Prior knowledge:
The protein is of the alpha/beta class and 164 residues long. It has a single domain (2-154), classed as Rossmann fold, CATH 3.40.50. 38% of the residues lie in helices and 19% in strands. It contains 6 helices and 8 strands. It has helices at 34-41, 54-60, 79-88, 109-121, 130-137, 139-154; strands at residues 2-4, 7-8, 11-12, 24-29, 46-51, 68-71, 97-101, 127-129. Strands 1-5-4-6-7-8 form a 6-stranded mixed beta sheet, with helices on both faces. A two-stranded antiparallel sheet has the order 2-3. A hairpin with a 2-residue loop joins strand 2 (7-8) and strand 3 (11-12). Helix 5 crosses helix 6 (139-154). The N and C termini lie far apart (32 Å). The model is unreliable at 1-22 (pLDDT under 50).
Amino acid sequence: MCVLAGACEGHYTVAHMQAPDLLLSILVADTGGTLEVLRGELPARWALTAAGTLEQAKSLLREDTPLVVCDCHFDDGRMYDLLRYLKSRPQLQSVPFLAVRAREGELDDAMYESIKIAVDALGGDGFVDLFRWRVRYGEAEAARRLARRAQALALGTPGQQDSG
């Protein structure tokens, strides 16, 4: 487990143990680049707790977790398992879940829609194809949009949802 606040020799340091009320920790279940994108764009009030496996993610979830951001390729494709776990626990059901696909390569429209539908059907709060956003908006704007979307969900104010 690492709670991110800054980098030190390529490793992230544990940050909010001394001041947990100041930083809210978003769980990032990721084996790709989503973690770095969020770290670069989210305001300092947000800590990011990284999980590399389903078991780690399950052990880190708390009812006050403001958001779970999960990469589609997390732990060899166990994103849906994590979402099902989250929504099947009464104390965790209200935790928002944002699915993200950060890998290079374009999804065809049918595959894109099927992921959106599946995430929604399982109780998730959205799907972002970061590659698609990068093509459409550019790298920097795609990162900003992802961070805004994550922060809005974490604050309980999802606002306008980008599609595509």
